[in-house]
Amino acid sequence: MLPASISFGEVVHAWDTFKAAGYVVDFVSPDGGDVPILDEYVSEDVASRIEDEEVMRGLRNTAKPEQIDPARYRAVYYVGGSNAIYGVPEHSVLQSIAMHVYERNGGVISAVCHGTAGLVNLKLASGQNLVAGKRISGFPEEHERQDAAYFKEFPFLIRKTVEDRGGVFHALDSEDPYIEIDGRVVTGQNYASAKPVAEAVVDVLRRLTGQQSGRGAVKG
């Protein structure tokens, strides 16, 4: 088994955007506690933030899904990194949290890069897949290093699975930011899309509520 990690920059860029908008950000992971952060997933633009006590306290002490009261949240943000494709998509409690926020709270579901893996198994109360009929972005398998050991360990492919679930997948052949906004579902293609995704989540929430403060959740 190969080591996996969250994408630290995708946390930081979203964190800064949500905090600047007046939102409280909480962290949750499949097992709670310390989430893995490998050096290769800490880009130069955010390396200094490893010393940010507030961010690191959240990442070193993530809540267990069972500790989360979904009634308190208006948004879910699935962080990318290779860690996102393991343990998150099939976690029934994380799924329940997300769908409570989306259906009962009228909130937003969002994801960036490999974080889109967290959306593929989400189902509405009707039994329909959340992504069905929706424009979705994320990190497509054609952009992966397909001869690399990590790729051979992936349990599923993001584009293929989104499309199998009825979603309409969009991605650019580029490292430029790219996001899709389809109602209350916001997704981004790559690392560069983390801040635009977070900004779009804030915009959607403001349109929905007319308020500039609330609570949001980050999922690692």
Automatic annotation (TrEMBL):
InterPro entries: Class_I_gatase-like, DJ-1/PfpI, Prot/Nucl_acid_deglycase. It holds the Pfam family DJ-1_PfpI. Keywords: Lyase, Stress response. CDD domains: GATase1_Hsp31_like (cd03141). The keyword Transcription does not apply. One of its GO terms (biological process) is methylglyoxal catabolic process to D-lactate via S-lactoyl-glutathione. Gene3D superfamilies: 3.40.50.880. One of its GO terms (molecular function) is glyoxalase III activity. The keyword Coiled coil does not apply. Belongs to the peptidase C56 family. HSP31-like subfamily. This is DJ-1/PfpI domain-containing protein. The lineage of its organism: Bacteria, Pseudomonadati, Pseudomonadota, Gammaproteobacteria, Lysobacterales.
